[in-house]
Structure formats: structure tokens, C-alpha cells
Amino acid sequence: MEVLLNFQWWEMHTNKIMIIIPGPQIILNQAAVAATYLLNETFEGTGYDNGQSITFTPTGTVDEDFSTSGLNLEGSQCLKLDGTSADSYIISSTFPSTYSPAWATFQFRAASLPNSAGRTIFTFRNSTTTLLQIWFNNTGTLSAKQGSGTTATTSGTLSINTTYYIKVKYVAGSGNGVATVAFSSNTIFPTSGPNYAECIDGTSTLGMNNISLWSDNSATNGVILYFDSLLVDDAEIYL
């Protein structure tokens, strides 16, 4: 934090008014303030990140300590899910509460395209009930669905052996629930256009309390996927 004493007022902004308060001006250096999240999983070190209250249960061929060498992912380790022989996934433990809205961001890289559409890569869940589902399709597109709502699919496509950032949003609702997915080659996410898709007629009314990451082997169409820098929060995430 920086305190500037040579100014005579401090402007405090609210949603509707500006209040001028006499006195020194206080400027918060946002870059120096560490953000906190419901989950911040970097896959660094042995196993999953130490000291976090959220843990993961793996199934299938899972390597949470895989080297990022040559993969253009953050840090030195990432999560590798090999779905070529069977479903491979991790499911988180239960979060402290239930959340709606909820957001997630993560890095994603695919070694190949699946042989058919609809291979799950991410879910928001309540207990064992899937609330939001994100699919990686054989065309390279991503799809999002909230409950029994309409599946929304990007027209933009992901290329294999290329690292992307993916952002997901969930809002509970009965006929008006929301699921969005956006992807980018950097940390600036679109809110419209070919690399964005939105379901707005979702039916899931529950809050999120756990997540999963997948390489889905349905009909032996699984692929090798890499994930890194996973963030989950009940406030929108800005990287």
C-alpha cells in the first residue's frame, strides 16, 4: 500500500455516488495484494498442493506431478489425465459451503482430438449431481450445459498440442440457469464471439460444492489431456 500525503482528498467510489473525504489520499497497489480463492491448485510439489483444505480423489491413469517441460504450462508440474484406455478423472472433496454463482479458470492442452463429440473435461457438482458440464469435442470446439438446459457450443476451435486458458461460469436457476465457457491463448477471456458459448435456460437450482476434471473414455474415445493453474471461486476470476 502507498500513502500519498501531498493530496488533500481521497475519492471513495460506490455504485451510485462519489464521496469526497478530506485528508491524505490512499492508493492500494492491487498487484501487491494477493488474491484468495476457494481453490488454488497449481499441481506443484509432490501430490496435490500442500496445505489446502480441498483434496482430490483420482480414478484411472492420473499423474498430478507430470512435468510441464515442452508443454507451455505454468510452473514445473501439471495434471496429466490419460483417458485412452479408461475414464481418468479427479473429483474434489466437498467445499466449505455451496456456491452460486461460481467460476473456474484453468490451463488446458490436448495431445489429440477425441474421436467423437461430447468428451467431458470439467464439471461443477453438488454431491454427485452434475450441475454444469464442459465437453471437448472432436471438432476442437467446447460445449457447455447447465442441468437439462440447451447445450451451447463455441464456433471457435482449439488446436492440439496448444495451451489455452479456459474460463467457466455457473449460475443456478430453474429454466434460467447459466453455464458459460470461454477460451483464449492468453488470460484475456472473450464474453462473446467464436471462442465463447453460453447456456441460459439451465435447470439446476443447487449451489456448487465440488468439482471434477476429466479425460472421458466413453466409447473408447478418450485422449491425453493436461491441466494446470486451476482456480475456483464464488467471485469472478481475473488473471
Notes on the structure:
Mean pLDDT is 88; it is low at 1-21 and 25-32. The protein has strands spanning 2-4, 9-13, 18-22, 25-27, 39-41, 56-59, 61-67, 77-82, 88-92, 102-110, 119-126, 129-136, 142-146, 152-153, 164-171, 177-184, 196-202, 210-215, 224-233. Helix content is 0%, strand content 47%. The strands form 4 sheets. Strands 5, 7, 8, 10, 15, 16, 17 and 19 form an 8-stranded antiparallel sheet that branches. A 7-stranded antiparallel sheet has the order 6-9-18-11-12-13-14, with no helix packed on it. The protein starts with a strand and ends in a 6-residue tail after the last strand. Strand 13 (142-146) and strand 14 form a beta hairpin. The protein is globular, with a radius of gyration of 20 Å. The protein is mostly beta strands and 239 residues long.
Poorly predicted sequence stretches spanning 5 or more consecutive residues? 1-21, 25-32
Q: Structural class from helices and strands?
A: mainly beta
- Rough outline: globular
Question: Number of helical runs?
Answer: 0
Radius of gyration, rounded? 20 Å
Work out the strand percent.
Answer: over 45%
Helix content: under 10%
Strand tally is 19
Give, in order, the helices and strands.
EEEEEEEEEEEEEEEEEEE
Largest sheet: 8 strands, antiparallel
Summed over residues and divided by their number, the pLDDT gives a mean of 88
Gap between N and C termini: 20 Å
